[in-house]
Predict the structure.
Amino acid sequence: MAKKSIADVDVAGKTVLMRVDFNVPLDDAGKVTDARRVEMALPSIKSVIDRGGRVILMSHLGRPEPGADNSKYSLKPAAEALAGLLSKPVAFATDTVGSDAVAKAGALTDGDVLVLENLRFEKGEKKGDAEFAGKLAALADIYCNDAFGTCHRTDASMVAVPEAMGDKPKVVGYLVDKEIKYLTDAIKSPQRPFVAILGGAKVSDKIMVIKNLLGICDKVLIGGAMAYTFSLAEGGKVGGSLVEKDKVDLAKELIAAGGDKLVLPVDTHCGDDFKSSCNKVVVKAGEIPDGFEGLDIGPETAKMYAELVKNAKTVVWNGPMGVFEMPPFDEGTKAVAQAIADSDSISIIGGGDSAAAVAQLGFADQVSHVSTGGGASLAMLEGQKFAAVELLDEK
């Protein structure tokens, strides 16, 4: 799946239309409270402007309703944050494909940067509208996709715009290039043993991932609340734990298909209330008493999972082992994160809660790759193909 990257094209004197993920959190005053997503786009942006190109950046932010007052979803604060990070002025268009965007795009000189207003202010974005896409495509000479978090979507900026670019170069940015390298290539030909750790609340969210990884991995370790659905499938007692009763038959199928590849918890850390100060008890898996709910994997499971991780050469982790935001039910997630950080394996952390846990525990720089897209990384682990990536130029 090797795609041409922004580094492979001559950008001097040319305009690059770059899809980025500037879906950043804003406070009530409209200031960016966490600029990490803007920072992550810097290598691709700098690659263009340092080589004498011009950049037009497009992104969505939040969930605006076309036609409503969406001023709180404006990308202007993100443009201001980018200007601070680049230490140079960044132009901002008050529309996406209107007169201001066209005028400001036309006024760009080599090394300049322009941020367009929120793509989702236009109903054509979510609809994948060809006319809207054509107007965006007409602004530039090169298309660059550096928004992995939306790669599994078919929004206009992801699919219809590169299609409308015709024979013009269509490439990935450094961020998407890295995601493809880790999430596709490392899984296609993994160094073994290859261990996957899947947590989170619902089996239903991870069915296709579990099925796909059971066919590829040496071990698939299960944690989080979805372990209790598997426990129920084995005839265990789950107390008041979060379970999906309608997915028990499916869990039975996965247990049968997985054999000794599928590894389930052997003990559970329970509480009689959903708070840190509750009464706690550690019991064998499938023996959760009435009035208690499972809130984390138990210490024996944490030890067993850490041992399996220690001996792995490739590790993929998506989803926490328990309620990692609430001590002491963060211990299972901590133990797994520590084991991954200590191992010399190729370690790939899926987006969402796993990425948050790794960052919160201070291990982000001790793993090979932390994915920037929760839904997109899950879809890629399922083995899905993305139209937004498939139609880009091959190396």
About this structure: The mean pLDDT is 93. Residues 174-188 form the longest helix (15 residues).
